[in-house]
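Researcher: Going back to the complex we discussed earlier. I've cleaned up the inputs and rechecked each line, so this should be the final set. Can you rerun the prediction on the complete assembly and write out the structure?
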Amino acid sequence: MADDAAAPDTQSEAYAREMLALNGIVLSPADLALVVEEFRRLQDIAAPLLRHELPDRLDLAGVFKP
Amino acid sequence: VTLAVLDAGEIASRVRARQASAREVVDAALARVTALDPKVRAFSEVTAALARRDAERIDKVLASGGDPGPLAGVPFAVKDLYDVAGIVTRSGSKIHAERAPARSSATVVERLMQAGAVLIGTLNMEEYAYGFHTDNPHFGRTLNPHDLTRTAGGSSGGSAAAVAAGLVPLALGSDTNGSIRVPAAFCGVFGLKPTFGRLSRAGTVLFVSSFDHVGPFARSVADLAGAYDAMQGYDPADPLCADIARSETASRLALGIAGLEFGVPGGYFGDLLDEPCRRAVATVAKALGARAVETPDCIDAARAAAFVITSVEAMNERAHELRTRFADFDPKTRYRFLAGALVPGPWYARAQQFRRWFAGEAARWFANVDVMVMPVAPVQAPQFGQADAIIDGRRMPLRLLLGRFVQPLALLGYPIVVAPLASANGLPVAVQLVGRPFEEEKLLRTAAHLERAGVARAAIAKDFVAP
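Model: Rerun complete. Updated structure for the full complex:
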């Protein structure tokens, strides 16, 4: 529960502002709102990936090899 | 018939036999571009002086008894993200347009030139290759030669449109999530997305390094194979270029399809596509004797993984420009780029882990099938401004729909040939022929078989046929 409480609300403008600031990007409130909207759309699209069960201990070695 | 509308093989044959000079061919191509490109707006820049100089060099080699290469005198053009020595690589961006001209050409451009092909210009694209329409806010929209009210597809729309309009017999594009395949289908030309790592990307502007491929467009399979063969070969300048032997394909097209196994996957790849696209898959499957194959139940997740990787890496590639020139980005995509900065790290790691796992699933999927027949897009070329399409009674946003069948395959890096077909409504339609890694030859032989059988066909759009 403590972890949940500490987890950022990734759909919030505060989270977006902070993540963009880490990249050196500062936006107007209107632009920030559009980025958040775009990210929410991406979050919906990503849902099947986040729900998909993967085997444990799957490393990334060779990921670029077809 | 003007020399400019001949296929690459025919042009090279005439030039090599000195029945036509490279200079005559290039002059004819440049004249055709001047006359017709304003109708489709495929070209970003026409490099007439460089082209005439290179053509004259080829004619001199021939005159002195030398061999200028298998593509002698063949005009070609490249998407505006390939470096061309002396030309600014704009990547469809007004920011990159301010950069200095490239000092050298991309490896694959150099290789085509070494094979005798003559570059005549660069081609329009979506800004930074992000999108399926080639509706560029800075440099204009490219129109579909088969119907000027419709999109040529993207992001390599200029490349596909230039070939479909008969402005060049060969063009290069790039494919990240479908950017060769969708425009090839919409414009009715052959396209090849080779295996990831097969062709060098050195000297190109990357969009999503995990998925970026370079590849050719042409109106015949022989031309597609000839261009592909000329570009093959390890290149240490591209860290992801595979160090494997070249595999000549053009000379093997006549071998046909004997011994090859064909499959047509159901499930995800049989769902949500309109009637002409469904019929195209059925027609090709029947012509090849393809058998029904089950599709792994994870394609939605594969597409999601491709979206996540694209978002993060696209943001990473353009971070500097987004930091300093945000207002100069295409309003359609600048928020999409920035959304990539919000993706939590574990999502990206999970997407790459999924990619690793999916490679194993796909190996089993393709274990007994050499070539899988799949749709390219769920619909034919949409009209400009069209936001959605109705399929099976469901209204779907085009933004999500267009990448439905191409994007999940981006994760695999498998080779894919797009084979175009005519359709009853006059608009092109196409299928993807998907094969195992580094087995491009089987795909090209299959496409050549379909072409010989009259099933696949890439013709110059009727309003652009030479008088």
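Model: Worth noting: The helical segments of chain A are 2-6, 13-22, 29-51.
Researcher: Good, that matches what I expected from the previous run.
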